[in-house]
Description:
Layout: E1 3-6, E2 10-12, E3 18-25, E4 34-41, E5 48-54, E6 59-61, E7 69-74, E8 79-84, E9 93-101, E10 106-110, E11 114-118
Parallel strand pairs: 2-11
Antiparallel strand pairs: 1-3, 3-8, 4-5, 4-9, 5-6, 7-8, 9-10, 9-11
Amino acid sequence: QVQLQESAPGLVKPSQTLSLTCTVSGGSITTNYFYWSWIRQPPGKGLEWIGYMTYAGTTYYSPSLKSRTSISRDTSKNQFTLQLTSVTPEDTAVYFCARTNSAYFETDYWGLGTQVTVSS
């Protein structure tokens, strides 16, 4: 069974860069035809898609966050990483990594989520 785990919760100061790593076990992040996504949920709000990386390494980002978002990966560690620059308190949220099956565009596996608070 595929499992995903986000790096530990943390505090980020305004204007700094948020960085989170998702560690995947039970499956390779390079296996056809899966996408690896970052999703967040601000307090009291719904889920917001941030972006994803395909099995081939191609990235796609939400238009509203594209200018500040970067997703990368380390295939030797079976990990993928989110970086979000110039953060503000509105970036405070629970951040999830997840896998999507590209054949059906269904997100079938999720990490438990990690709390990121942006505060001075």
